[in-house]
Amino acid sequence: MYKILFVCHGNICRSPMAEFIFRDMLQKREITGIEAASAATSTEELGNGVHYGTAAVLRRLGIDYSGKRARQMTRSDCDKYDLLIGMDSANIRNITRISGDPQKYGGKIYRLLDFAERSGDISDPWYTGDFEQTYVDVAEGCEGLINWLQRSGVI
Fold first, then answer.
1. Is 8 noted as a catalytic residue in this protein?
2. What is the pTM of this model?
């Protein structure tokens, strides 16, 4: 089983959106053998459910996100997951800090849009309020990630 962890600051907006959209894309393509989860780099939202803006996007798409609660990324996640995918540069710095060993884990740390035709940060809708743009960016990144996994022979 190939395992991917999507990571953002609080694990209530971008990373759960990526987790559930990615899972939905895999399911619709009947791709198996890949597990996806999400986590936060901070403790601010631990135990909280998905933000209402992300929930609205996922409901509109018919994607079930029930039971999701924010959790913090741990050092052990660096061994458990094959890819650690942050939503922005600050997430990458924090993932690297949590890993404790950039030499060992650096090869599995990416930003989600690194897999798209354009790289960059996915803006945090907690601040922008623009969950639709976040959805567009997340979907583009997830499509690119699936293509990368196919080119890499993972799927």
1. yes
2. 0.97
The one catalytic residue among 8, 13, 78, 142: 8
The 10s digit of each residue's pLDDT in 30-58 is: 999 999 999 999 999 999 999 999 999 99
- Selecting among 24, 88, 124, 137, the annotated active-site residue is 124
Buried b (16+ CB within 10 A) or exposed e, 74-110: eeebbeebebbbbbbeebbebbbebbeeeeebeebbb
Summarize the confidence of residues 130-141 as an average pLDDT: 97
Q: Is 14 a catalytic residue?
A: yes
Fold of 2-151: Rossmann fold (3.40.50)
Query: Structural domain boundaries of the chain?
Result: 2-151
For residue 7, what pLDDT is reported? 98
One of 13, 14, 23, 88 is an active-site residue; which one? 14
